[in-house]
Design a protein that fits this description.
This protein is mostly helical. Helices cover about 70% and strands about 5% of the residues. The protein is globular and about 60 Å long.
């Protein structure tokens, strides 16, 4: 199966990145040339979907340059959605039997489950394939269960960050806050919204367990998968707390920022899903280590891209207001670098305005300029390139002809060179 990278110049670019990863240590200045990748290989036309420049402009002349997105190979995303829809439908009657008043909980969760990148199930699926596993409906259901865990994390994250939107729509807590207000109910609409959202997140967490445990994979496979899943949840909650702690502690350092990234995002988004899928197939320790080397580096690059989008992203693409991380006062790697390298005037601007919910577009632009001028933006972009190079180099341990290797290579590009 051929995936989405240009199989001419694009492959040369990826190989150049791998070569540089072997010769330059992580943290080097410019281990890969993103301008070259963008020019020759990738053109973003929507979040996480790419065509080559030439294929986009003249697809009939260059059909060989248009491949299958590895997120959609083997009908992956469509099958994940089908499984999620079926699971929710099966549980609707139970909720209705408790009380029809509980159905808004399901309806709000359903809205969040539509769309999304499906990265975690995809990495679990390709980890399973890398370990020699065979595609099956039960394996797909086990992988899809991670979307419920992701829904829980997003819902609770929006409450903790006081984010009003998610994917261009009102966040779950804002939906219930609006319901309270429009119904003219008693008490605080804000507290009702937050409380309801916490319960929706808890419901999603419970269903993640249930979907995995009833997926139909064999007993031994389930035991191995559940062990990884349990560790992943603990790491995620610990990482979320560290993120919350940094918002109130302030003055974040590069080392502390990296710890948050590793446990809130890198392990949870890529490394542990890979491990879970591979564990279902009975992967050995050697392969598990390869997947760790690939997944941790890529996971950190993925979160750093999120951090850039949270400050510099296009709101029409990200579904979040421009500069939302600045309004929330997110203590990211960008801010850590600025803390260490900005001049006094720049630091004073950050101290005065970072974390102010009422920031105007003009002030957002000022803070963005600070992060550009002090070098924070370029530092994070370089770090993304370094991590991507390290991630791709790790895949050299896999069989060159492996479909999973091809998919994981291109997922690395998709996860780091994205607009949402």
């Amino acid at each position: 199966m051929t995936f989405g990278l240009n199989r001419t110049r694009g492959v040369e670019s990826v190989n150049e990145i791998r070569s540089q990863a072997r010769t330059k240590p992580l943290g080097g200045c410019v281990p890969c040339n993103w301008a070259q990748l963008t020019k020759y290989s990738l053109k973003v036309i929507s979040p996480l979907f790419y065509l080559t420049e030439s294929a986009r402009n003249a697809p009939n002349q260059y059909p060989e340059l248009v491949g299958i997105n590895p997120l959609d190979a083997n009908g992956l995303r469509a099958r994940i959605q089908t499984n999620l829809d079926a699971f929710v439908t099966d549980h609707r009657a139970l909720m209705a039997a408790v009380s029809p008043d509980t159905l808004p909980l399901i309806e709000s969760l359903e809205g969040l489950l539509v769309g999304g990148k499906r990265l975690r199930p995809a990495f679990a699926y390709w980890g399973h394939q890398a370990a020699g596993g065979q595609d099956s409906d039960s394996v797909l259901r086990a992988c899809a269960s991670l979307e419920f865990l992701q829904a829980c994390a997003l819902i609770h994250d929006d409450v903790m960050d006081a984010s009003d939107t998610r994917r261009g729509k009102p966040a779950i807590h804002k939906q219930f806050e609006t319901k309270h207000t429009s119904s003219n109910w008693n008490g605080s609409a804000k507290l009702f919204g937050e409380g309801a959202a916490i319960l929706v997140g808890d419901l999603a967490l419970s269903w993640a367990d249930e979907m995995l445990l009833t997926s139909g994979i064999s007993g031994d496979s389930l035991t191995r998968a559940k062990a990884v899943y349990d560790v992943m949840r603990t790491e995620l909650m610990a990482g979320q707390y560290l993120d919350l702690l940094e918002q109130v502690r302030g003055d974040i350092t590069l080392d502390r920022a990296e710890t948050v990234i590793r446990f809130k995002s890198a392990k949870y988004t890529i490394e542990r899903p890979l491990h879970m899928g591979a564990a279902i197939a009975g992967a050995n320790n050697e392969l598990t280590q390869v997947l760790s080397d690939y997944g941790l580096a890529l996971g950190e690059a993925f979160q750093l891209r999120d951090d850039l989008l949270g400050v510099f992203g296009d709101s029409s693409v990200t579904g979040k207001p421009a500069g939302d991380d600045l309004r929330e006062g997110k203590q990211t790697m960008l801010i850590a670098y600025a803390n260490a390298n900005a001049d006094e005037t720049q630091k004073n601007l950050l101290t005065e305005y970072l974390g102010k919910p009422e920031l105007s577009p003009e002030t957002i632009s000022e803070l963005q300029k600070v992060l550009l001028d002090c070098g924070a933006h370029d530092f994070v972009e370089t770090r993304i390139s370094d991590y991507l190079a390290k991630s791709l180099a790790a895949l050299e341990a896999l069989d060159e002809a492996s479909e999973a290797k091809s998919a994981l290579t291109e997922l690395a590009i998709l996860a780091t060179k994205r607009s949402a």
